[in-house]
Amino acid sequence: MENSKENSRPSLDASGALENRVSSLNCIDLSSPHIHNSVSLLKQACLDSGFFYVINHGISQEFMDEVFNQGRRFFDLPVSEKMKLLRNEKHRGYTPVLDEHLDPANQKHGDFKEGYYIGVEVPENDPDWHKPFYGPNIWPTADILPGWRETMEKYHCEAFKVAKAVARIIALALNLEIDYFDRQEMLGKPIATLRLLHYEGRISDPVKGIFGAGAHSDFGFITLLATDDNYGLQICKDKDAKPQQWEFVAPLKGAFIVNLADMLERWSNCTFRSHTLLIPVMIVLLNACPLASHKRTLPSFRRSSLKLTCSSDTRIRMLISIHTTNDTDTHADLNSYNK
Question: What is the pLDDT of residues 119-138, one digit of tens each?
Fold first, then answer.
């Protein structure tokens, strides 16, 4: 993760007004004793744009910084070293630049980002091992990246705790018992995936169909996104509008930006709105990127979406998610790397 010396903000026109609007989101304090207020704020956000902030979530800024630092250490490795950890059919391991193609209809190339998948550690003798997204992780050796595995395993665990805390408030907002999503048949045995993403230096050009990450919709439950001080994330509250109106989401130090995904929309009988990436619970640590390039996310329903804008500066994004079993694979055929 490279921190720019100046915050990247939406540009100003001649009158001094932002060329792109900045969206206003509700803020949920997970440490607040006023649970009814939290439920009210979350419910309104879920009925409106499907986005909100979460603060005081229990993960220290010091540890978040360490996770980003460790992520940068991996992406700084030579490509030859990273390719030794190429992702497998279980979605564990390294994904090279252009490997993922999220919006083929509007992208000339794949996404200009590289990534790394880390999931729940499932040994080969586990009865669930044969299932999609279940399996052992692929780890860099300790002599190359000492402490890397331990940091990522700890973050994976801590981030999922935050996701479950948010899920409890969502349950109350849907008039369910507070532990509804804690049940075994719901999130009792999740396919929780931590994903590190690093956007390379190419500047996106939407007119030419070039993006850091193309428009897409989350298949999952929720997404949690942590950003640095740069503006980058954008949302569209009505994807059917002509033209679409994109709004920036302001970074908030120490907070997660949360958005709903497709599975929650279905589980709530479309009461709540889904809209981003390709998975159930997603906890995203993002060093949000300046304005020059784009990662877009579009919803599966008629309102709400997001995109992420990245500049020529390299940036890292880390995300943890829970997958459904019928996700459409947006990655390149693994056999293509053997040619």
Answer: 888 888 888 888 888 889 99
**C-alpha separations of 220 from 29, 111, 279, 336 in Å:** 23, 21, 4, 28
**pTM listed for this prediction:** 0.78
Letter string b/e over residues 314-330, b meaning 16 or more CB atoms within 10 A of that residue's CB? bbbbbbbbbbbeebeeb
Cβ atoms of 204 and 293 within 8 Å: the answer is yes
Return all residues near 251 (Cβ < 8 A) that are at least 6 apart: 227, 228, 229, 230, 231, 232, 233, 288
Q: Which amino acid is at 157?
A: C
CA–CA dist 264, 301 (Å, integer) = 12
Q: Per DSSP, what are the bridge partners of residue 162? A: none
Mean pLDDT of the chain: 74
- Answer whether 258's CB lies under 8 Å from 53's CB: yes
**With contact defined as beta carbons under 8 Å apart, do 257 and 316 qualify?**
no
Other Cβ atoms less than 10 A from the Cβ of 333: the count is 9
List C-alpha distances in Å: 100 to 41, 66, 329, 337: 35, 26, 9, 13
- What Å distances lie between residue 195 and 44, 59, 153, 159, 219, CA to CA? 29, 17, 12, 12, 15
φ/ψ region of 98 (left if φ > 0, alpha if ψ in -120 to 50, else beta) reads left
Would you say the C-alpha torsion 167, 232, 157, 117 has a positive or negative sign?
Answer: positive
Residues in the chain: 339
E-assigned strands of the chain? 21-23, 26-29, 51-55, 93-95, 113-119, 192-199, 222-226, 233-236, 246-249, 256-260, 281-286, 293-297, 305-310, 315-322
Question: Prior bond to 190 cis, omega within 30?
Answer: no
The distance between the two most distant Cα atoms of the chain, rounded to a whole number of Å, is: 65
* pLDDT at 48 exceeding the cut of 50: yes
